[in-house]
Amino acid sequence: MTTTIFDFIGDQSGEWKVTLTATLKGDPISSVSHLTKVSSNLIQTEKGIWTLKGIVSNLRYTEKKDKDKLVSIQENLGRPNATLAAFIPIRKSEAWWNLAQDERRKIMENKSQHTHTGMKYLPAIARKLFHSRDIGEPFNFLTWFKYAPGDADAFEELLYTLRKTEEWTYVDREIDIRLKKKV
Amino acid sequence: MTTTIFDFIGDQSGEWKVTLTATLKGDPISSVSHLTKVSSNLIQTEKGIWTLKGIVSNLRYTEKKDKDKLVSIQENLGRPNATLAAFIPIRKSEAWWNLAQDERRKIMENKSQHTHTGMKYLPAIARKLFHSRDIGEPFNFLTWFKYAPGDADAFEELLYTLRKTEEWTYVDREIDIRLKKKV
């Protein structure tokens, strides 16, 4: 089961080179030049300059029809031409977490079209969500995107669309770290 | 944030005396005579004969109307006359986890009336759910009930009602440990 837990280690060397770090909301994070994603466990060790831990979990909002579609078109994150990545840790406000399931779902799907927006860019923009809130981490989610240089514009469009949704008004901390694969 | 993580330690001494251990489904658990619930962290240490770890999280299925009702009638688990308790670790099958959110919700609420059944017995039967699946524990949930001796029959009725629901057909491991407060 430990393969569902991952550490994202920001440091002075590593697998991915940081090309840009932007604090979009809330407190910034210490600046690092490299990021490495490693399979980990629940032990909170501070590796590198900082370590953010996330867990792969079940889908919390996706309904049957969308889940089937997602599974059929989802691209494996390991494809070799995806030399660009984005690591975007996010925290949502207490107001969000105090909402009931149906209220959160309504904001995410009916109003913000979260799943449909992401799906539109699949398989070009591969995305993976890691949960961090329940394990006492500073962020609630670590989002991880990988794409080929030719899909960089599509990626910007995807982010732009997500960030102007009602769902995003509940985001109170967001750091956008762009990465390039060391070759 | 560490107060959301708890260890349930089964041992030869402790806060609660075990009065009965029943394996209802799946593999049994080592027999212990006492159980202690302690505030913990994510470090997996084996204390006592066994340690089961769980995390308090947000409600995953409860809708607005029910959430408001729950909050208004929920009794504090610390009341002194609740000298009986039940610790029931549960695992659900892969078939359950492969369902989409709306399918799980439909089985839990529309068909199994999970929230309404629990609510009917509040505040007499205080209940708390701890999540374990995402942190690689052997069970998916640790359920914890506390009640006064006068409500013991109501508690049996609650369990009987939950166990014959469609939701319960997805439970593939369940241990029922009954406890009495040491006074």
UniProtKB/TrEMBL annotation, chains A, B:
Segments forming a coiled coil: none
Heme in keyword set: yes
Keywords (A to Z) from UniProt: Heme, Iron, Metal-binding
Gene Ontology molecular function: any one: metal ion binding
InterPro entries in alphabetical order: ChdC/CLD (IPR010644), Dimeric_a/b-barrel (IPR011008)
Matches recorded under Gene3D superfamilies: 3.30.70.3420
Identification of the protein by name: Chlorite dismutase
Species for this entry: Flavobacterium cellulosilyticum
